[in-house]
Every structure is written in structure tokens, then in C-alpha cells.
Amino acid sequence: LACDLLRQICNHKLAGIEDRLSHSQELGGLLLRLGHPKDATATLTAALELARKEAPVYVGQITAALAGIYMESGKPEQAREMFEQAIAELRSSGKPRQLGIALTNRAILLRHLGDDVNVEALLNEALSIHRQTGHTRFEGLTLLALGGLWRNMSDDDKAERSYRSALEVFRRTGDRPHEAQALGNLANVYLMTRRLTQAEQAYRESLGVMRELGHRRSEAILLGNMGQLLQRTGRLNASLRAGKESVAILESVNDLMLLPAFRAMYASSLATHGDYESAENQLGLAVGELGESPSVSALDHVLPVLFRFRIAQAIGGYGPGRTPGQRYPSRLDDAADVLRQLRAARTGSHSGRTQVVDRNVANMAGSLSEVREALDKGISPVVFNNLNEAEASPQCRKAVLCRLKELVPEQLEWMESNEPELYSFMNKGLENEPEPDWRSEELVT
């Protein structure tokens, strides 16, 4: 209904040019949130043509809005070009409020792409403009972007401060969807710093708001991230459900910017279960969706997961359908190819994001060398499927072991007899750990 009303205003002959353009911009944003990026693009493209013919002063504003649509629908190169045009127009036309918006969104895009620019300086310029013009909503959004920048650089303290500042802004202004977004971002920090109870509370509250408001893209993001929390707390089947629903939503809205990374997260959960076939399928789709993606951020979300999966395949793995102890050393060559691909992706760039990629590359190279050396010597690597150290929480390890005991007890016995170091690692500190509800698919308790 809202879309229909906005369309009527946009096309009404008696509506003034300013009303038609502003409502076209509003309609484009609404269509994108509802999962119709093509319609959103068409709406803003028509508005841009109208502005060029009848109201050139609005060209910069509409160009920036269209760039935002491109950015969120997986077309970063078009978005980058249009943001540059929009910012030049807005600087020359003296529209500081709209300039600040464009600067914030451009900085977010450049961070995602890993461009060799000082994203922090760009965001601080935008933040200053928002405060000078009293644009409180985008002050909060820019604080969220700064928090994301610090998260990418693994500075959780600075990220948390930025997210809390954004949360205060949105609560003060009664902006429920962005308050929920800030809460979801805080939940990510809580998850990474192992404050799991706080993370779950924040995820649940944020998810409830996004579902109530029908913000499908935000719902998908929260479900994907919540899936990681559910795995770490041992709720394995719920983790799979969250990941599956997240991917399904992003597929339905054709969000090619987020889909590869969230497919990879889902694939990681599948591999933990030992469902290598489904994990292979999801990772194949993710790599295909990346294509020739210029996004260092997207590559850094997908390729490390693919790398760990190739290592897991080489070792054999546990779970229904797996054969522990059966080695596939050729998969190590596949892992080396993934490592080379990630190395090549960041060549020539020196942003904060690519510094993190460099660290990941170094860790991956070390891991590959250790596993290859162990297999060459006939030694069993202390690796369970694709679990990394952060994911292998006591609750997760307990759940995995309980699941193996129920579904394939002979594999657990084989591990104890033939891979005692792995068995010891998986059981470390679990004496008083209760059995998590790994069977339930319920997302909340």
C-alpha cells in the first residue's frame, strides 16, 4: 500500500517537482528494503532523468540515492562511479546535508572494497557535517560505519564505543529500525569477545524489531550472525536453521553484496556437522556469486572458509557419511590455490581491511604447512572438521561429541583409539559441561 501511494505521488501531474523527486527517493529505498532492487533502480533512474530535465539542483542528491541502490544490490563498481559524480555535484551545489549522506555511504562502500583510502578520515568528515547540519539520523549511521571499520580491524573496544554512541543517538530520536541495527552490531562485538549471553539478548531483541518492521535484509544479516552464536553455544541444528533462513532471504531479495559471505557462514556450519556435500554446494555458489568481485571484504569472508573446508576434506572428517582417517591429500593443493587467490586479491592495496587479510593469509599459510607436514609424516592433525579455535567453544565441542555419540558412536570410539590428541582436545574442560540442546531447531530458548 505504501509503495502504491508513493507511486501515485511520484506520477501525479499536480505534484510539484520537489515532491515528486523526494517521494521517488523514498519509494526507491522502500522497494530495496522490501527486496525489489530492480524496481528500486528503475524508480531512481527515472527520477534522475526527471531531475536533469526539470530540476538540475537535485541531480547530486538523486545520483547519490541511486548509487546507494547499486551498492546494496551488489553492483559496487557502478556505485563507486555514481558516488564520485554525486559528491562533485553536491559540493558545487552547496548542499551540505546531502553531501554528508553521500560521504558516509561512499566511505562504507570503499571500506567494503578495500580501496587504498583513509576511510576513517572520510567518515570523520561526514560525521562533522552531520553534526553541523543537525542531521541526527546520519550522525548515528556514520557512527555505525565507524564501528564497522574498527570491527574489520579487530579493534573491538573502539567498535563497541562507536556502536554504543550510535545506539544512544537512535534511542534519543526514537529511530527503532536503526536502534535495532545498532543492537545487532553490538551483538557481533559481544559474540567476538565471548559475552554470549549479552550477544543472544541483543540478537533476539534486534531480530524481533526487524521482523516486525519487515526489514528482510536486516533480518537475514541477524539470522546469519545469530547462527554463529547458536553454534558456539552448542545449538547445532538451530545454527543450521538460522544459516539456511538467512541465505534464503538474501536469495529472495537478490542481494549479491551480502549473499556470498552469508553462504560461506552457512557452509561453515554444515561442514562442522560433517555435511561436506551441502557445504561444497554452498561454497561453490558463493564463489560463483563473487565472480570477479573487486570486494576485498567479500573475498575475505568467503575464501578463508573455503580454505578451512579444503583442509577438512584433506583430513577426512567426522559425522554421518564421513570416514575418519581416510585422507585426501590432493585437497591440500586446492587449499593452496585458495590461499594464492586471496593473496592476489589484495595486491596493491594498503587499507585497514587488507591489513587484516594479510594477517589471515599468514595464518592460513602456517596452517597449511603444519597439516601438510603432519600428513607427510603419517601424523593425525589435531583438527576437527573445519572448526577454528574461536568456534571450538566448550559448548560447541560438547554438542559435537554428544551428536557423534548418538548418531555415529563408532566414530567417537575410533577417535579415542586412533587420534588421541584430537580426542583429548575435543574433551578438554568438559567434565562439568552440561549437554547442550543440539537437536532443537528453535532459534530462541
How are the SSEs ordered, and which strands pair?
Blueprint: H1 2-11, H2 17-33, H3 37-54, H4 59-72, H5 76-93, H6 96-113, H7 119-133, H8 136-152, H9 156-173, H10 176-192, H11 196-213, H12 216-232, H13 236-252, H14 259-272, H15 276-290, H16 296-315, H17 330-345, H18 352-376, H19 394-407, H20 409-418, H21 420-427
Overall shape: it is elongated
Global mean pLDDT: 89
Task: Tell me the number of strands.
Answer: 0
Percent of residues in helices: over 70%
Rg from Cα: 24 Å
Pairing-aware structural class of the strands and helices? mainly alpha
What ranges have pLDDT less than 50 throughout 5 or more consecutive residues?
A: 348-352
Strand coverage percent = under 5%
Number of helices: 21
Largest sheet: none
Q: Distance between termini?
A: 35 Å
Q: SSE order, as H and E?
A: HHHHHHHHHHHHHHHHHHHHH
Structure description:
Among the domains are: 1-134, Serine Threonine Protein Phosphatase 5, Tetratricopeptide repeat; 265-439, no CATH class. The protein is 76% helix and 0% strand. The protein is built from 21 helices and no strands.
How would you summarize this macromolecular structure in one to three sentences?
The chain is 76% helix and 0% strand. The chain is an all-alpha fold and 445 residues long.
Which terms would index this structure?
445 residues; mainly alpha; elongated; Serine Threonine Protein Phosphatase 5, Tetratricopeptide repeat; 0% strand; single chain; 21 helices
